[in-house]
Structures are given as C-alpha cells and as structure tokens.
Amino acid sequence: MTIDKALNDELRARFNPDGSQLRAVQLRLLDMLKRFDALCRKHGIKYWLSSGTCLGAMRHGGFIPWDDDVDIDIEYSDFRRLRRILRTTPPEGFAYQDRHSDPEYVLTFPKLRDLHSHIDELNRQDRRWRFQGCYIDIFPLVHASSLKLHVLARRIHHLTVRRAAKIKRDNLRKLALPLAYSIYYGFANPIFRIAGYLGNRNRRRHMPGTWYPGARDARDFREVKYVPFEDTLLPVPANVDAYLTRIFGDWKALPDPDSIETHINRVTLS
User: What domains appear along the chain, each with residue ranges and CATH number?
Assistant: First the structure.
C-alpha cells in the first residue's frame, strides 16, 4: 500500500464502510477473485489484476474504496484456454457471459458473472442482458500496433453491433444483431487483429472494439508477482510501476473524492 494507512482508513470510512452496499459488493467480488485465481492456478493460466483493480492493490492494498467491479488482463493465448474452460465447466454459481451465452451482450470482452446477485447499473446498458450479477471483466490482450486502427475498430463496432442493439422493436433487434455480429466478428475484427501484428513492438491493447485504447507493453507482464489484496494474495505484472504509469500516469496521486462516480445504482445479493 503506497498511501498513508490513516488516509486509506478515512477513505474507506467514507466510501465503503463495513455493512455498506458497496462493501458487500466488494466482498462478493473478492470471493469471486479467490475462486477465479484458484481455477487459473489449477490450469496454469497466467492472468493479472488490471486497471483500477491493479491500482487498488498497489495503492490501497485491496479495492479502491469507491470501486465496484474487477478488471483482469490476460494474453490472448491464455485467454483461449480460459474461455474453453469457462464455457464448458464454469465454477459453481458463476456464468461466463459473451455473445454466445447471452445474445444481447454487445461488449467485445467477456465477463464472469455471479449468479447469486443482481446489479442495476446506472447507465442501464445491461437491461436486456441475460446475466446481471456482480462481475469480473476479462480483457484479452492482442498485438496492436496502431491506436488509429483500434479507434477505427471501435467506430465500426459502434456502427454495427451497438447500433443494432439500440433497436427498440424486439423482433427487428433480434434479426439485426446476428447480422451485425457476422459483419463485425466475421469480417472486420479479423482484419484488425491481423493488422495489429505489423510493427507492434511489444505493444498490446484490449480486443478491437473496446472503449479502452491504452497500450500495454508485453515486457511489463512477461512475469507476474503476487501481492497483498485485501486478505489474500493476487497477481500483478512484475513491472507493475511501469504498467500502471502507462495507464494512469501518476497512479499514486489520489483523485478529488468529490468527483468520484460509481457504476452501481442498486444491488441484490443472495
């Protein structure tokens, strides 16, 4: 933990005190992470905490006090193995969510969902999704040489998949979405994936079509190390300082607490 313990305790008292809705969500996510980590260790799959979850591990020794989800990164070769396991034999009480298991799910990265909770997200983009429990975002990293290509892929995904998902009439939307998926995943996405190999110089990005264009350097996560996270140990990139600096800049600096927003409106846990 890089910030003063007294300050960290003050932030937790403000945002996620024991007994609060947010703290209950974080504890459910922590249980999910422990089980997910055990699964990956069992099968020799390398992954690591990413984005705000990695930042929380290093700056707060666990969740960022106002964070309400979990992000992990994984190299695409390991992701293919993980996907096969989660599609066929997900851990009890979990569901693997992608466009195959949930036809209205339009994101280009999958989620691992808890089946014993329900989240109402503030943006309500999930209102038609089959699975709506607490979740781990799983971000496969692919070769990505060009930011412009990544942005173009996101634009095409918006014009095809996301536009089809916004059709209000159910019968039209259910016809349009499979066509949009075929255009994007059958044609556009493979082209962007192939183009990403050209001159990538160790650069990796999230799958084309995501809203997160920031580049990662593969040398930062060739190895991972386990660090304290709440009451357990979880993996982060071995070169975690450089990794977080590429994403956040001065990652040790705290934001203005009054400017913080969360994703969640209401949660039901069972």
Answer: 5-143+211-269 (3.30.460)
